[in-house]
Amino acid sequence: MIKIYKDREIDAFLEHLGSRSAESTEEIRKTVSRILSDIRTRKDAALLHYTARFDQVDLRHAGFQVSMKETADAASSVPPALQQVIEEAAENIRRFHQKGRRESWLSWDEDGIVTGQRVTPLDRVGLYVPGGRAVYPSSLLMTAIPAQVAGVREIAIVSPPDRSGKVHPAILATAAFLGIDEIYKVGGAQAIGALAFGTETIPGVDKIVGPGNAYVAEAKRQVFGRVAIDMIAGPSEVVILADDSARPDFVAADLLAQAEHDPAASSVCVTPDAELAARIAEAVETQARGLKRGDIIGASLRDWGGILVPDSMEVAFGLVNRLAAEHLGLHVREPWEILKSIRHAGAVFLGHFAPETVGDYWAGPNHVLPTNRTARFASPLGTQDFLKFSSLIAYPESALKGNADAVIKFAELEGLDAHANAVRQRLV
Asked: Of all residues in the chain, what percent carry a pLDDT higher than 70?
């Protein structure tokens, strides 16, 4: 079910893995471009068309917006025990993201110059909550809570409807708990277009966040610039670094947990221990037999999974940093010591008892993470993603005169005489 790679096979596998990127095909780019253009021109009429075409739902009479009654009914239908789980997870997530809040600051120099930074929240954001293969109230918590902590005033949710024209009750119940009542039954590239351009029903937003399929990712790419986005997310991925202290059943379980997301998800283990690699492969085979999403897991592991066996742990570090994974599990004897050798990862899970699952749902750090090696330069979604920063500069007359010659010379160096003149006029 999962292949073991050694020596030169490792480079070939990594090259193959590189073809699994967030880049869209030409067909997807053209399709998304047509949809966005149509949404921009025909607005609600185009939304109705694409919702009927892709979701097989006619919303001409019901409308796009979820009613307060629908949300209340959904909230009441969720068992109390599950509601408590959602609330406790939300508290963990909120507590973590409150630590990421940024405050405005000012600096006063002796000559009276004041510089600083003003931090303000975005006015309005749109949250994309996926549907399809699974339901993701966790993604709603992970996108809404940092926006709320940042102080965003207006939050709109879009999520694909089912065949009966309903958004999943777990999504609505979570939205009710969060106090968000602006929810729309739209998904796909058309939902991204509605948020970016605005329609008669859905007001436009300043930023769009949240994971989605290839069409959603491409739509976010194409509307970037008109609105902000969090990232272009590709299929999910995990890398497990294991030494001889690792338990094969634990490693296998973590690889399988990632593989069940999507046929394009990638699950990779890196270990210099060849005997351990064989035991992990056997454990993957054994555990997979009892899992419900076997077809998805099989496709994922066959096409994008692998156990890499380098010559040493030092070489393994290089492979892990080269992979720059969305999720990195350290199944090693001294994870905090090993962490010093890790430069690139979206989220790091330290030790044998920190499975990715606790990060997806419970621990508090965000599970909206950079994929496809973008952890080399990108970060998890956080409170800071819903803030913007304005520079503040105040100069008294005496300070400007004291610095005027240097500023004028710099302007003249760049050949910008009007810039220099703006200072000279104040010296008269």
From this structure: 98
Alpha-carbon Rg for the chain in angstroms = 25
* Span 359-369, average pLDDT: 96
DSSP code for 260? T
Burial class for 167, CB neighbours closer than 10 Å (0-12, 13-18, 19+): buried
HSE, CB side, 13 Å, CA atoms: give it for residue 217.
Answer: 19
Report the Cα–Cα distance between both ends of the chain, in Å, rounded: 80
Residues 173 and 176: their CA atoms lie apart, in Å, by 5
pTM: predicted TM-score of the whole model, two decimal places? 0.93
Using the predicted structure, report yes or no on whether residue 96 has a pLDDT greater than 70: yes
Beta strands 105-108 and 114-121: pairing type?
Answer: antiparallel
How many C-beta atoms lie closer than 10 Å to residue 206's C-beta? 18
Q: What are the pLDDT digits (tens) for 247-280?
A: 999 999 999 999 999 899 999 999 999 999 999 9
Confidence at 102, pLDDT banded by 50, 70, 90? very high
Residues 6+ apart with CB under 8 A from 84: none
Query: Which H or E element spans position 116?
Result: strand 114-121
Classified by CATH at the fold level, domain 26-229 comes out as Rossmann fold (3.40.50)
pLDDT digit string, tens, across residues 125-152: 999 999 865 678 999 999 999 999 999 9
Q: Are 141 and 93 in contact (CB under 8 A)?
A: yes
Please identify every residue annotated as catalytic: 326-327
Give CA–CA dist 124/153, Å, rounded.
Answer: 6
> Does this chain's domain 4-22+234-363 share its CATH topology with 26-229?
yes
Output the six-digit token pair for 66. 């979820």
Q: How would you class 232 by CB atoms within 10 Å of its CB: exposed for 0-12, middle for 13-18, buried for 19 or more?
A: buried
What is the second-level CATH architecture of the domain 4-22+234-363? 3-Layer(aba) Sandwich (3.40)
What is the residue extent of each domain of the chain? 4-22+234-363, 26-229, 396-424
Q: How many Cα atoms within 13 Å fall on the side-chain side of residue 209?
A: 29
